[in-house]
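[agent] plan:
  1. take the single chain provided in the ticket
  2. run structure prediction with default settings
  3. attach structure tokens to the ticket
  4. add a short note for the reviewer (M.T.)
[agent] executing step 1
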Amino acid sequence: MEKTKVAVIGGFLGSGKTTLILNIAKNLIKKGKSVGIVTNDQGSDLIDARFLKDNGLDVVSVKGKCFCCFFDELASKLDQFKKKKAVDVLLLEPVGSAINLVATIFKPFVNNKSVMLQSFNEGFALSPLVVLADPKRVKHLMLSDSNSEYSTPISYLFSKQLEEADLILINKKDTIRDNEQRELVEFLKRKYKNTSVKCISAIQNEYVEEITHLIINGTFVSKAGIDVDYNKFKSIEASLGWLNSNAFVRYDQDVDVNSLMDEYMKTVKKELVISGCHIAHMKCYAIADDDFYKASITSNDDEISINSEMTLKHDAFNIIINARIISSPDVLKHIFENNLKIIFHPQSVNTESFSPKYPKPDHCD
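[agent] step 2 finished; step 3 output follows
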């Protein structure tokens, strides 16, 4: 029996991991491969997991901590797939602020640190680490490298993610010119020597065949881990407010959900900026039966990106919101919940808003 390939697709918040994973999974299934997906979030209600499930994929989630600090829980999900059914490929999507994945996930697996999996190497094989990057963040990293005044806490996390990658994919190439693509690729190749760098557009399904080939045929080669200042990591994580909210809405007649969601996204963004908050990533998902609206934004200066709109009007629908923003959790909860109530008058609203706990990896090899 062939080993199950385990592929980690990392990248900062809003880099397009979920879109790429969806396209990879579809391509693998087209090739006759069975696929399982493990998503990850600090909270309890993740849009990405819901979105992938709604596309007919087999998804389980690690909730409450990042993979890098919850290795044993991650290992239990792999064991769950192993016992439930044999899968050819497992795609793992870490939380967008996760770093040091080689030391906290890859090496513990290779070194058989998971008791429940017994010998990981007998049943599984790791593919090279793939990390996605938003071109706007790469441009900002270029600026911060040349002028420390541009350096931000997020720059540190982003740089550390890229530092340990086997393959860096600059996503959203459709949003930048050809000369900018070349400039960003050359910069990353200079900064992270011996690392492959490519420009792709996940939303246009580009380079998926090549990534699929890498996942199936590539092998993770053990290497030295990166140097991480966990006190600095802690302070950065503490500055990020995490918000997950869900609401149920019902009206007496069908309404244009797209217009209401657009209004909500624009209003919340405006209030966040006025309040001095800094958006790292904000996603909104409205769903009614098989019809859905999905939109996101990755910074205060970003335009709202609408990934999908509803094709029909509806009188009842669910809303799910995930936000990762430099702000206090209380401010976030007030802005997001208050506007939900004003714009939608929902039947019910449930919100969790918090700052992540101090990162303490189960293993750090």
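[agent] step 4 note for reviewer: Residues 262 and 295 are 9 Å apart (CA to CA).
[agent] ticket updated
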